[in-house]
Amino acid sequence: MPRASLRRPNPNLDLTPFLKEPESLPEIISSQTLFGNDKPLEIEVGSGKGLFIQTESARRPEHNYFGIEIARKYAAHCAARLARRERTNAMMLAGDATPLFAPFQTASNFQNNSFDEATATPIDGPPRIASGSLEAVHVYFPDPWWKKRHRKRRVLSEANIRQFSRALKVGGRLHFWTDVLDYFELTIELIAELAPELGVPLPETQRDSEHDLDYHTHFERRSRKFGIPVYRVCYRKRSDSKVVPVGTPSHASV
Ligand SMILES: C[S@@+](CC[C@H](N)C(=O)[O-])C[C@H]1O[C@@H](n2cnc3c(N)ncnc32)[C@H](O)[C@@H]1O
After folding, report:
1. Domain topology for 27-109+122-236
2. Nearest CA to 161 among 85, 224, 242?
3. Ligand 1 — pocket residues by CB below 6 A?
4. Ligand 1 centroid to 212 CA: how many Å?
5. What is the pLDDT of residues 22-50, one digit of tens each?
6. Quick one: which residues bind S-adenosyl-L-methionine (predicted)?
């Protein structure tokens, strides 16, 4: 289903505090480096038009929210929503979430192309999002990438499942909602296999909506309006992640 067109953000709005580019991000991503405080940090991957980050950052001012949206015009649209409401606890990145979560790759190593000449491999640095540092990761209605050969592009790929779990603190949450049953079932299996420390999937319930924008996200609104079932789960991390070498194959058929 095609996405509705976006209104242009008001050119008089200063988006600078609300919209980051990959080049302007601090090397290490944390509440301290992004917001200058130590509030718990929640990351949303694929914010779309930004309904979730807008409403959740108002509902929980004691937490910080960092939305990552790869499509620049959508990231700018989200940032404009936050700017209009003068949020001090939320901002957007116009960029790809996957390299930010990657292990052992700091921005400067990446940009300086630092190689260990003896082994011709990139020099490892600490991950940009520290292990055990996040309060929550939110993934709502990720693009399904239907074709089997495209599945590695899914946001809930094997690598990202491991990295989201690594980045969560014990007690932290991974929320995953989708209206694609196949994506839902495969992801539940993958998480059980790759990140058992996340425990069992806890169902999340549908809330009644009281007005036309009273939905969790725009895609949830769309699915419910068209009567399409939505599958919602939350995981709560129970223990520290096992360190699994990157590229370790799994037995799942993704
Ligand atoms: C189907 S939309 C859902 C948007 C929103 N979560 C909602 O429920 O309304 C998926 C969004 O994820 C974004 N996206 C896809 N891959 C991404 C990535 N690697 N990093 C950040 N955003 C990504 C897409 O641009 C798109 O806006």
Report:
1. Rossmann fold (3.40.50)
2. 242
3. 45-48, 68-71, 74, 96-98, 140-143, 155, 217-219
4. 21
5. 999 998 999 999 999 999 999 999 999 99
6. 44, 69, 96, 143
